[in-house]
Amino acid sequence: MSEQRQDRVSREGPGQLEQAVEESEGADPGLPLLFYERLASASVDEKLTLALEAASHPGFDEEDLFEVGSRLEQALEEAGRYAELEGVLDAWKERAPRVYGAEPAVRTWRVELALRLSGRGRDVGGALTTLARDTGDAELVLRLAEWCLYRGRIKEAWAGLLEAWPRVREDETLAEWTRVDYVSRTVLTSMDVALREAPDVSGARLGERLSAFARAVPHWVEQALALRTGREPWKEPPGSLLQVAPAALFDEQRALVMALEPELRLRQGWPWGRTQLIYPELYHLLPGPRGQGGGLKRPRELLLPDLEDLSHWAGSFPEDRGLHPHVHAATALALRPWGEFLHRLGLVEDEELSVWWEGAWQALGPLPEQLAVGNDPALVEELHRYLRGGWPHG
């Protein structure tokens, strides 16, 4: 919020909140109901004024901060003035420090503001580390770390993930698959940071960096280091993918997905951090070993996501979109490069790739609008541009 607007608010005499208090007799703790009625019908500028005045009310508490902040955030977003939320948070921190410090949503807003305004000197790493230390919320830290990774901010992501790990490790209420996803993402992020610092980092040196995770470190780490860096190319297993046992097939699919990462950096210009987001989402989209025992005729049946499954994935997981929007965006953007990668390896033929990508492009249509829940408008626009480009014939 501009200093001029804040000065105007302070000079206007009795504020709208004071009037609301005067008109509310015997009010319960918290902001009076009349305040929320006025907030609902107020213009954006009036909402800003009311939000500033709210912190001076003696009943202003954490529930009020969350409710007023959420409504104001939505109004500012719709008006294209999201950055002005920062000024309100600063004012709340000064006027109601106890309430400000007690409401976890403040940390989330601070990180999202830092990410969206990162070109203006914002401390993304500091904001994420503070949130991780204060909340230890695995899903929240993971979502915001993935946002950092998508933008290539691997050190900030690593700092936040590492800060929250002790509480994530000890959280007995956490679903085990969430903990596994957290560890996998943290391990890959540690690898990215190590490679940025020393491109020739060894497996032993990486193991030292991962010692804090002990037995939680995935068994595929050394293979990932070799494939994600391009030090070793993917090698087709003896015989054919069509004949390998189901367990071995899953290993080969995982290896292929990781071998795609150097291609994304070299051919698509993706930064370190973003490439890892295709794992494990793309891996999970690949067909399973159905039809083994003679039913499968082409490797594409094991390596290109089924179009019906892809359509369901693109349009039917609104809850997951809010948790992992940047993972889903990276996966969608990697689908065509994935098909081209398989084609260069001789695993998919020209006609197979063309027909599949036409269907995949159409299946992805609902995805950009669903990603709006991630609070990153730039991400939505990137997906729109990608899909507006159409699909290449031949």
Poorly predicted regions = 1-14, 20-27
Helicity, as a percent range: 55-70%
SS class: mainly alpha
Shape: globular
**End-to-end CA span:** 52 Å
Which whole number gives the mean pLDDT?
89
Tally of contiguous helical segments: 24
Could you give the order of the helices and strands?
A: HHHHHHHHHHHHHHHHHHHHHHHH
* β-strand amount: under 5%
For the secondary structure, the number of strands is: 0
Radius of gyration: 25 Å
The biggest beta sheet reads: none
Q: Would you write up a description of this structure?
A:
- The chain has 394 residues and is an all-alpha fold.
- The chain contains 24 helices and no strands.
- The protein has helices at residues 3-11, 16-22, 33-41, 44-54, 62-78, 85-95, 97-102, 105-116, 124-135, 138-150, 154-170, 176-197, 203-209, 221-229, 246-259, 261-268, 281-285, 300-303, 307-315, 318-323, 325-344, 350-363, 367-370, 377-388.
- The relative contact order is 0.06.
